[in-house]
Design goal:
The complex is a heterodimer of chains A (450) and B (399).
Chain A (H helix, E strand, L loop, with lengths): L8 E5 L4 H11 L3 E6 L26 H6 L4 E4 L5 H12 L3 E4 L3 H6 L4 H7 L4 E6 L14 H8 L1 H4 L14 H24 L4 E5 H7 L2 H10 L16 E5 L6 E5 L3 H11 L2 H5 L6 H6 L1 H12 L4 H10 L4 E3 L3 H5 L2 H5 L3 E4 L10 E4 L3 E3 L17 H8 L4 H9 L18 H7 L2 E4 L3 H12 L1
Parallel strand pairs in A: 1-2, 1-4, 2-3, 4-5, 5-6
Antiparallel strand pairs in A: 7-8, 8-9, 10-11
Helix pairs in contact in A: 1-8, 6-9, 8-9
Chain B lengths: L9 E4 L5 H11 L3 E6 L23 H6 L3 E5 L5 H12 L3 E4 L5 H4 L4 H7 L4 E6 L14 H7 L20 H24 L3 E6 H6 L7 H6 L1 E3 L13 E3 L2 E4 L10 H8 L7 H4 L1 H6 L1 H13 L3 H10 L5 E3 L2 H6 L1 H5 L3 E5 L5 E5 L4 E2 L17 H9 L3 H9 L4
Parallel strand pairs in B: 1-2, 1-4, 2-3, 4-5, 5-6
Antiparallel strand pairs in B: 8-9, 9-10, 11-12
Helix pairs in contact in B: 1-7
Classes of the chains: A alpha/beta (450), B alpha/beta (399).
């Protein structure tokens, strides 16, 4: 049996996360994704977070962020400022189903790669653009980072400790919100094309997708004239809810109580007479009103516990609780491991990297087979298979293009980012810790998964 | 403008709370026929704040309103054998069943995928759950904050020396709902070509854990475990207070920082000094730099500074309040928000299409169903039930 999206061809002119992460998921589901790169303008995710922090040799083929976003894709290089490079991209688009990009409209217009240009080449093409603020309008050409769209959407305004400033997540969170909606948008356009044969242009604004996920922010204001106050981890429908300290350095547990039954179970498991006997806490209204007092009493007990042990005790009694997992704990989490959530992906032999586990997908399909994972391409890895095998050019053309700088196999001006030593990063507080024997730990995990 | 993109897709929607309803809302607003089945007491989201004019009532939840546009709604007691019979009849007429009960529920009702595919071999069934249908956490309970904690997003979120934080609202559930809608269409796109039915197991925890960039690869690549980042006063991209709110500076770090351009943009001679000119120097004099920047920014206004920065292609960001998001010229230009009459009178303004499509429409939404609103029309029109039979079902408490 075939993978769900087998037979679909996508040309991706993406960068960083918003489009690459979405196309990775479609590649995982069987689509052929051809990922375009430039040798002159090296993607920054190829230059940072390098395997073993090693900036020597072909470091651009060892960047964690690039591998995280580009699994199962074919990789080609093209210089679009050269007429032949642009012509090759157009030729590729003419034999593809989807063209996906996340540059500003200014760039796309300069290269004449707008939807109206592309449909001349391929009448039923689906084009998807993902931008910070949308493909048209007064902010269309404003570049954006994840935190910037988190701010413009209203999500950052709503998030933060009580009486404190807004807080944004420390990953480009809304890039993923945009990516998740982009997958849905593409599938919606494909369903329509499957039924009618008609392609179209899909315009995704990362800010707009984020606003779509916080309806209360706007509706409480327009209907009730209420502006949200930042309130830490509390929730207007749940009390108590919080993040409480546990035994150890920077260890935490979250607890979230929805009803009387869960509250009574919590009091019993924490074995705290102050929580159980205080009549002020006996109903939901009281638990909202005296949330501060309750938090102090809960924390007195949680500090005596290991967070994962306490979670298991509480969950066994039907109480919503979760250990706050750090990156290492997440990777080795027994539940995710049982579900084979981390997929072992081999790397190209020239990288010298061992197979490593990567987060897979939030879904499992019961009937269609999962493809055997391949790592993100090294630079120019599939120039030959795309230009020669797919488009039918002679191999001699490849060497001519390479000598003209139209294609290549590495950056024209390679500059890797050497991070400060791990000891220094721990001292600065940027890392919680590092574990020198990580290679052994990861390879043991790999063997366990086999 | 012709028909909607998903017209002809028939969805039977057993979902409640947030993740499942957002999934079926996405499908419904883009044209799928969605029949929402509520237990006789109704979807619990009907009791969730905020409410229309703060009046708590099952038809007044603004969250329920937003999450259930464009759906038809019926009530059905799935524990009764008649209710199950009606459900199976509706399954036969659907392409997709979506549910987000805890994983024990559908099998205990005899309505798991294996049973349903016997009556409908090409059925796509989507099960959304906190931790998936298998594994040691399968029966764990969760709210959004538990998914943040166990999904790995919370540990790296918040102040360095404060407790970890989550986003406001229900982001983990919206994430899972979006992913579920994508997975539904991936399976259906394939199903339309091959007649292959299948069951999709969608985990909210994994929705969070699959969107963390390099949190686990920090460890697999270097052995590093990231913590919530310290926020040094001299950091150039630190959120800063301006006279009318907050701004997110970004002086074009990725292309290599040109300090002279920063000095010129901020119009501050005191920054034109060797003690700030290099990265190392800025680290050594971070505190002094921080106090100069704080003072400088506090005299600026947010929007002026944002536009001036973008003139120079510095990708600054703004932190906007509800009023500012509503009035934002980009949102105005793109008609980001739409209005609809509320069943109890008055108008509701809410976020419109999450993205724009050039040749299929999104607008023409219908309001969310009142509890049991379409009981009669669905059962009589789709299943041919008579008036008398409907009366029996009502008196037996099945609908």
């Amino acid at each position: 049996m075939s993978s769900p999206l087998e037979g679909l061809r996508i040309v991706e002119m993406g960068q960083l996360i918003a489009i690459p992460a979405a196309m990775k998921m479609l590649a995982d589901m069987g689509a052929q994704v051809i990922r375009l790169e430039s040798c002159r303008r090296l993607e920054s995710y190829r230059t940072d977070s390098l395997f073993q922090n090693d900036v020597t040799g072909d470091f651009w083929n060892r960047g964690a962020n690039f591998y995280e976003q580009n699994r199962n894709k074919l990789g080609i290089t093209l210089d679009l400022n050269h007429p032949t490079g642009l012509a090759l991209l157009r030729e590729l688009i003419s034999v593809s189903d989807i063209f996906a990009e996340n540059f500003t409209p200014r760039v796309i217009k300069n290269f004449q790669l707008e939807y109206d240009d592309l449909r001349q080449l391929n009448p039923d093409i689906i084009m998807v653009s993902s931008t910070g603020y949308g493909f048209d309008g007064p902010w269309a050409n404003f570049g954006a980072t994840g935190p910037a769209t988190e701010g413009a959407s209203g999500l950052a305004y709503s998030t933060g400790y009580k009486n404190g400033p807004p807080v944004m997540s420390e990953i480009p969170y809304t890039d993923y919100t945009g990516a998740e909606h982009t997958i849905f948008a593409i599938m919606t356009a494909l369903m329509h094309r499957q039924a009618t044969g008609i392609g179209q242009f899909v315009d995704v604004s990362q800010t707009e997708t984020s606003t779509a996920t916080i309806p209360e922010f706007l509706m409480d204001y327009t209907v009730n004239n209420r502006v949200i106050s930042r309130n830490g981890n509390r929730d207007p429908n749940i009390s108590p809810q919080g993040c409480y300290p546990c035994k150890g350095d920077d260890r935490w547990i979250v607890i979230s109580i929805f009803n009387d039954e869960e509250w009574e179970a919590l009091c019993k498991e924490l074995n705290s007479p102050e929580l159980t006997s205080d009549p002020r806490f006996s109903n939901v209204e009281g638990r909202f009103k005296y949330h501060d007092e309750i938090n102090v009493l809960i924390a007195e007990v949680t500090t005596q516990w290991d967070n994962q042990e306490l979670m298991e005790v509480l969950q066994t009694s039907g109480i919503p609780a979760g250990a706050v997992l750090d990156g290492q704990e997440l990777l080795f989490n027994k539940h995710l491991q049982t579900r084979n959530f981390y997929e072992i992906v081999p790397h190209h032999p020239t990288t010298g990297m061992p197979p490593l586990p990567y987060a897979s997908r939030p879904w499992k399909f019961s009937e269609t087979p999962q493809i055997t994972p391949k790592s993100a391409p090294i630079m120019g890895e599939h120039n030959k298979s795309v230009f020669v095998d797919l488009l039918g050019y002679k191999e001699s053309a490849l060497s001519k293009w390479e000598s003209e700088g139209i294609i290549g196999y590495g950056p024209t001006t390679p500059v890797g980012v050497r991070r400060p030593s791990l000891e220094e990063q721990v001292r600065q507080g940027r890392l919680q810790r590092f574990e020198p024997d990580f290679i052994n730990q990861v390879s043991k995990f790999h063997r366990v998964n086999e | 403008m012709g028909v909607k993109a998903l017209s002809g897709v028939k969805v039977l929607d057993l979902t409640h709370y947030i993740a499942g309803p957002y999934c079926s809302k996405l499908l419904a607003d883009f044209g799928a026929d969605v029949i929402k089945i509520e237990q006789p007491g109704g979807d619990p989201t009907r009791n969730m704040a905020p409410f229309y004019h703060d009046e708590k009532h099952i038809e007044n939840s603004l969250l329920f309103f937003y999450l259930n546009t464009s759906k038809q709604g019926i009530t059905l007691d799935l524990k009764s054998s008649e209710g199950k019979g009606i459900f199976r009849e509706l399954v036969m007429k659907s392409d997709v069943v979506i549910e987000n009960f805890s994983p024990r529920v559908m099998p205990s009702l005899g309505l798991d995928f294996d049973s349903l595919k016997e009556i409908h071999p090409s059925l796509i069934m989507v099960s959304i759950s906190n931790f998936g249908q298998t594994g040691p956490y399968r029966d764990y309970k969760a709210t959004d904050i538990v998914e943040y904690a166990l999904g790995g997003l919370m540990y790296i979120f918040g102040g360095y020396d404060r407790e970890p934080l989550k986003h406001a609202y229900n982001q983990a559930q919206f994430k899972a709902g979006t992913n579920a809608a994508s997975a539904t269409l991936i399976a259906l796109y394939h199903g339309r070509k091959t007649n292959q039915g299948q069951h999709i197991d969608l985990s909210i925890q994994e929705s969070v854990a699959s969107a963390l960039r390099d949190v686990t690869s920090n460890f697999t690549y270097t052995g590093a475990v990231r913590r919530r980042q310290p926020n040094h006063s001299g950091d150039l991209t630190r959120l800063r207070a301006v006279s009318d709110g907050y701004i997110l500076p970004n002086p074009g770090m990725s292309a290599g920082l040109d300090w002279n351009k920063v000095v010129e943009f901020l119009e501050s001679p005191s920054l034109d000094d060797d003690k700030f000119r290099t990265g190392t120097a800025r680290l050594e004099n971070a505190e002094e730099l921080g106090s100069i920047l704080d003072k400088l920014f506090s005299s600026k206004t947010k929007t002026d500074m944002f536009y001036a920065a973008h003139q120079k292609r510095f990708i600054y960001g703004v932190i906007d309040s509800p009023a500012e998001v509503l009035a934002n010229p980009q949102n105005q230009y793109r008609n980001r928000f739409v209005e609809m009459d509320h069943s109890l009178g008055g108008q509701i303004t809410f976020p419109g299409a999450p993205f724009k499509m050039s040749s299929t429409p999104w607008d023409g939404l219908t309001p969310p169903p009142l509890l049991g609103q379409h009981n009669k029309s669905v059962l009589s029109e789709m299943l041919g039930y008579t008036e008398d039979r409907l009366k029996e079902l009502i008196s037996d408490g099945v609908i």
